[in-house]
């Protein structure tokens, strides 16, 4: 299967498997290169089409995982290839498992103090040999940012998970990666809330049927407003399919 970058509605995505995503990160750690991993879902595609700044964050990322089932289906319908969903919330634990085995330490930046601490405790429980070199809540002011950058660098962490929501976490990476010594950066959105048990992941059946979005919608109907991106995305995919000669 080709892992060459594709463009869905003009927005880039890397059709990698979970294993390939972890391998990329492992490679950056080994060679000392820096790389960031961002998640692409229908909501982000719609935002990126309307917002050149967000499009720029995605275009300059080293790895763009297909986080939403909408991306997987959209790409299939457009004849852009068949690949699986790689959820950011699943990739983060996989990267921690790899870091534990290979001896790299991690830093957790984001969410409120309580959620952040509980997410760290969860990871420590799951990966006892993993070194969590440091952590910080995600509400650091501009004024205190140099202190945070120093804190992360002094911690020696080689992987940084940024859970600030989009596009705050993408902007933060773009701005501060050049000042940071860590190698792997992943934007993980609300994953610390999931780890802390604040937000529940959908039961296995919903995940297996690729309807995790439906579970989240049922649990939090206000998300419906945010989900307007999904019909917009699907409409644009269909429009592109009907008007282009792809396939
Ligand atoms: N957050 C943060 N700093 C901010 C704004 C938000 O740390 O300045 C955290 C917030 O506490 C939550 C996460 O970012 O833990 C956002 O999660 P959400 O599910 O909204 O992310 P997205 O839908 O963008 O993936």
Task: Please outline what is shown here.
By secondary structure, the chain is an alpha/beta fold.
Number of strands: 8
Query: Tally the helices: what do you get?
Result: 13
The amount of helix comes to 40-55%
Give the N-to-C terminal Cα separation.
17 Å
Number of domains: 1
Envelope shape: globular
Percentage of residues in strands? 5-15%
Element order: H for helix, E for strand? EEHEHHEHHEHEHEHEHHHHH
Largest beta sheet, briefly?
6 strands, parallel
Query: Hetero groups bound?
Result: uridine-5'-diphosphate
Largest sheet, spatial ordering of strands: 4-3-8-7-5-6
Residue runs with pLDDT of under 50 for 5 or more positions: none
Radius of gyration: 18 Å
* Mean of pLDDT: 94
Which structural class do the helices and strands define? Answer: alpha/beta
Describe what you observe in this structure.
This protein is of the alpha/beta class and 247 residues long. α1 packs across α5 and α4 (69-77) runs parallel beside α13 (229-243). β7 (159-163), α8 and β8 form a beta-alpha-beta unit. The chain has a six-stranded parallel β-sheet, with helices on both faces. A two-stranded antiparallel sheet has the order 1-2. It starts with 5 loop residues before the first strand and ends with a helix. It has one domain (6-246). Helix content is 51%, strand content 14%. The protein binds uridine-5'-diphosphate (UDP). Uridine-5'-diphosphate binds next to α9.
Main attributes of the structure:
247 residues, binds uridine-5'-diphosphate, six-stranded parallel β-sheet, alpha/beta, two-stranded antiparallel ribbon, 13 helices, single chain
